[in-house]
Sequence to fold (543 residues):
Amino acid sequence: MDLLELREIAQKTQASRAKTRIRCCNAAGCLSSEGQEVKDQLEKAISAAGLQEQVEVCGVGCMKFCGRGPLVAIDPEGSLYELVTPAQVDAIVERLKNPDAELTQGLLLGDPEHPFYSSQRPIVLENSGLINPDSIDDYIAVGGYEQLHHCLYELTPEQVVTEITKSGLRGRGGGGYPTGLKWATVAKMPGKQKYVICNADEGDPGAFMDRSVLESDPHRVLEGMAIAAYAVGANHGFIYVRAEYPLAIKRLQKAIQQAKRYGLMGSQVFDASFDFKVEIRVGAGAFVCGEETALIHSIEGGRGNPRTRPPYPAQSGLWECPTLINNVETYANIVPIIREGGDWYAGIGTEKSKGTKVFALTGKVENAGLVEVPMGTTVRHVVEVMGGGVPDGGKVKAVQTGGPSGGCIPADALDTPIEYDTLLALGTMMGSGGMIVMDEGTNMVDVAQFYMDFCQSESCGKCVPCRAGTVQLYGLLTRFLEKQATPADLEKLETLCHMVKDTSLCGLGMSAPNPVLSTLRYFKGEYEALIAEGLGQRNGHPV
Fold:
């Protein structure tokens, strides 16, 4: 396939579009709430009304407002329906024929100008909810694979790396390592065999950003991986996906097959002297395999244990070959950076945190869903303006970011801008993008225990500080919740947190104490109250 053929596919796809298009969210969240049944009923109703020549019903990826799904949008009129049920389909079709008809059967008309939508800056999610993730033609129709062709025929690998470096993109998997520097390191490594890996082992409780991208725009990730492979001199890629994401796996498999059929993956991509083969590896549910060296061992067929570094994967990774590892969101940023230029991307966000970040906004919040905002947006804007704050007029107590590796941001720090360094200063981290809102009824010691329970269960057990330390921390936190703790236990808890953090082998153990340390920092009074209550009960004076 050449560029002309690519553009012919785009033109034919666009020309075949019906005048009216009904988009039905077919991402995992909406599918779990009868989203597929809604789409099926719409197709039947449109056919029964004889409108199939004028109206197209299309399943699309995540439409972001997950807490209000299933979602149905009508183009070009701009109608958006929320919490749609199969029983309401006839009313939607009736309003399609007569836009002035009253809302019946409990139809809820959403507001496309709601701050949840209007505050977003879609770059990673620019195609999400707009295209059919099962159709490569839909992806090509919005410019898909043109940037891969541009790289292969108009840019040298060095120029691609330079553009990514200029963009200031940092890894979106949690650590925030400069992407351009990582690519440049792999590119400079000697050896004929190199690999690129997409880390899609998203395991943080409450996080679903990578899952949504894979379910909504799988070709975008594949194109980003192919551009990365060209830039660093690799010809083989792996996507490591957690087994709990069956829909993402299914859509990735289909996308790879389609790309091969079109000559966009495999041998001589775009008839150029560039080969790129992609395989999927399904993880067995081990959280530690999100750590890059553990992930590599798992792909190789071994147990998912991390190893000491150096050497880093960029030097000696998969089968001891130079290996580039980025996560889903990082690869999804590559196409727009190449298309618009590194300087364009660097102009979004802040001085040290460029571009946008996708967050899964969940917890005690009115508007739960997927949000993409420019770096530098405040936590308060995301939670209270876009998210609508705590339901029923409640107040935010804390916002937890970074999953088990992160910490809790107290309510008086909600005006903190979302940046890598500012979040670290608060004792938390960006992480992959989970953002869990907690109200005033939340017990912060209970939150700390929940995350420590998760970490002790997910520890691979290779190093003693993590294997034993997380168990000891969990036991101490349990003593507090059972009102058996003493002031000495409070001192021991903090000391043990720092020991585990400073001496563990990999990121899991190093960051496991973060939720505890952040709650000790901002909510120490809750620990002290449990001590006092326990002492009072033991002394016969209930508190």
About this structure: The chain is about 45% helix and 15% strand. The chain has a mean pLDDT of 95. The chain has four domains: 18-112, 136-345, 348-439, 444-538.
